[in-house]
Here is the input.
Amino acid sequence: MRSLLLGLTLTVLLSELPSHTAAAPYLICYYDSAGYERQGLAQFSLADLELALQFCTHVIYGYAGINPDTYEMKSLNQPLDFERRHFAQITALKEKYPYIKFLLSVGGDRDLEQEDKYVKLLEAGTQAQARFINSARDIIRRFNFDGLDLAFQLPRNKPRKVHSEAGMVWKSFKKFFTGDFIVDPDAETHKTQMTNLVKDLNTALKANDLLLSLTVLPNVNSSWYFDAPVIGKNVDFINLATFDFLTPARNPEEADYSAPLYEAFGQNRLPHYNVNFQMEHWLLQRVPASKLNIGVASYGRAWKLTIDSGSSGQPVLLADGPAHAGPQTKTEGLLNWAEICQLLPNPSNVNANGHAAPIKRVPDPTKRYGSYAYRAADENGLYGLWVSYDDPETASSKAQYVRAKNLGGIALFDLTLDDFRGQCTGDRFPMLRAIKYRLL
Ligand SMILES: *[C@@H]1O[C@H](CO)[C@@H](O)[C@H](O)[C@H]1NC(C)=O
Here is the structure.
């Protein structure tokens, strides 16, 4: 009763606040339209999206791209976005949900034709950039989006290579080849160019009353590409995609927490591969906390274990690249929460074997690193699996962190990989719900 009253008072208070001081935390819902085109149980419909909208303050439509010759922004899937009117279908939801902002995102690791074109755009000078800016503004306006999200595919941290000495215990004798190679010798110049582009974009968009947000993709190093104080002033908010620090594609031999909140000590882990480090990086440069959002992935990263990985499950583990694809997402090295949940021990998989055999869940009572679950390889070296993931519980501890630090909110990547059918417990969108309830 007391909390109900408190809740009501809060609601009244919040609704009386003028909108520019918006005190309610953001819940930014990425919607990757690739989910709309998946098949079977993974197919995400407009009705599914509508069900999620009660929890979202923003929807970010993924993804548009850029033309490598003209640098104009373009749809990456014209048959869907234009011919089947998917852009318009999505923004038409604004009529029913007028308080939600809909943004269109460009890049996001979906724009795979000539990936270095994002850096080339930075180098291309103001005329080429004006073409990008004008085309972006035109698409945003034509399809009635509320703004643009920049998820530029800039050069990534090089994953370090790990090697075990033959016949040695991997944990104690692994060697790191950090190789102090320079990923981008012109990073300083690119940072200046990025800053200027963001300023020009923001000017153009604000003249049309449109929003501009920045998404920092996983393993894009913020120190190299973003002049935090200036970027902070020229965007409405910043989403840090603080996950995929380690992935089976980038780190095939090294299975470890893929999205820890804090640094897990020991075993030569890199100090910047965790949420807290990334957030502090921006906060220390005086970017207002209220503009900074933490990205949470609605999927886990899955490695294949071998006999040499041992049977303890405890990371860091020697692994053998991406695990077998899941039955619904059909993507090597990735399992969504619905798939993970159905692999955890339950009445229907007691006698299952092979890739369907149950996996052992190891929760994280410290709430610092996230959960993992695994199945040791059998005597023939088969069916070994190790998956690092956020479940509703650990996602909610990230929301708790957001509250404790008065950050802007959480950005969920993405709706279509949450358990939107409620296959796990009957609750639809369990990740989204867990985050929402903790953010309130
Ligand atoms: C960028 O990379 C350098 C070198 O690896 C690292 O020291 C720094 O912490 C990284 N910055 C961020 C924000 O991750």
